[in-house]
Design a protein that fits this description.
globular, 21 helices, Growth Hormone, Chain: A
Length: about 450
Amino acid sequence: MNPDIAARPTRVRFLIVAVTSIAAMFMYVDRACLSLFGTEIMAEFAIEKWQLEWIYSAFFWSYALAQVPAGLLGPILGLRRSLAIMLFTWSVCTVVCGLTTGLLGLFVARLAVGIAEAGAYPTAAALVKGWFPVRERGRASGFVALGGRLGFALTPFLVALLVDPDWLGLYFNWRGALIVFGVLGIAWSAVFWFFVRDTARQHPASNAAEAAYAGPPPAVSTSTEWPVLALISSRNMWLFGLVQFGNNIGWAFLITKLVDVLKERFHADPGDAKYISSIPAWALVGGMFLGGFVGDFCVRRFGLRRGRSWPIASMLVVASLAYLACTQFENPWSVAVTLAVMAIASDIAIPSVWAFAQDVGGRYTGATIGFGNMIGNLGAATSPIALGYIQREFGWDWMFVSCSICFALAAIAALNLDATKPVMREDRPHPGAPEESQH
C-alpha cells in the first residue's frame, strides 16, 4: 500500500456525524409530530386547548430537568452506549404515546419521551468533540443539529405519507403515525450501535492518522470539583442558559403554536396550514447548515471570545426584529416567510452555542451543554403555556412581541459570553496564555 495513502485520515468521522445526525432526525420527528394532530387529540379526549398546551409542555419540562444528570451519564456509561440507549428508549416511549387510552397516559408518556431525549444532544456534542479538532467543531456540531432540523421540516410530509391514503394507499391516525415513527427509531438505535464508537482510537475502520487528526483523547478528570457545583457558580453558564432560555421561548413557538396560529389568526386553510408551517422548518435546515461555517469563520477571524459571542448575539437580534415584523402582516404566507428569516437567524447561532459549550466544558462537555439546555428548555416548556395565556389576555400581536423581547434579552446575554474561560479551574489556561491557544 502507498504509505502516503496509509497515513491519511480515514474520514470515518464523517460517518459518525451522519449516523448521529439521523438519530437527531428521529428525535425531532418524535417531538414535533404531536402538534400536527392537535385537533384530533382534542376531539378524541374531549379536552380544551389549554389542556392540550400542557400536553405539549410536558415533554419540555422533563427534557429540561433531566439535562444535567443525563449529560453526566455519557462519560460514565460511554457515549456510544448512552446515546444508543437513549434513542431506543425515547422511541419505545413514542410507541407508548400512540397506545395511550387517556389524557393522563399521554401526558406521562410525553414526560418519559422528554427524559429519554434529555441527554441526546449533550452526549452527541461530547461525541463530536472526541472526533473533531477545535477548528472544525462548529461545522460538525452544526451537521448533527442539522439532522434534527431536517426531522422537524420533514415531519409534515412524513405524517402526510401515513395519514393520507392518496400517498401510499394506507391510512394511519395519529396513534398509528406515532407507533410507526417509534418503531423506525428503535431500528436506527441498532444501526447507531453498529457504526459508532466513542473515539477514532476505538473504531475498527479508523487509523492512527484519523486519531491524530482528532487530537488527544479525552483526559480523565483528577479534579476535586463536582461539576454541578462548578456549573452553578459560573457566570458564563448562567449567561449561556439565558441565551438558550430566551431563544427557546421564541423557537418553541414553531413546534407548539404555529399551525394553530396560521389557522386561527391568519385564517389559513386547515389542510394548507401544516405545509405553510413547514416553511420556517426548512429555513431552520438552511440556518443550521450555514451556522457551522459562519461560527468557525468568526473564530478564525475574530478570535475565540468574540468569534463565539458575536455570531450568536447578532443572529438573535435579527430573530427579534423578524418577530416584530410579524405584527404587520395579515397573510399566512407572509408570516411564514418572515418566521423563516427568524428561523435562519436563530439556527445560524446554534452551532456557535454548542461549540461554546465544548470550549468551556472541558471533560464535562456533556454536563455543560446539559446545564444550558436545561435552562433553555425550561423556556421551551414555558412557551406554549405563557404564549397561550398572553394571546388570550392581550391579543395575537402581543404573543409576537413577547417572542421578540425574549430574543433581544438573549442577544444581550450572548454578547457577554466568554469562551476563553473554562468552567472547571483545572481546564483554565495559565495567566498570560494567548487566546489563540484555546482555538
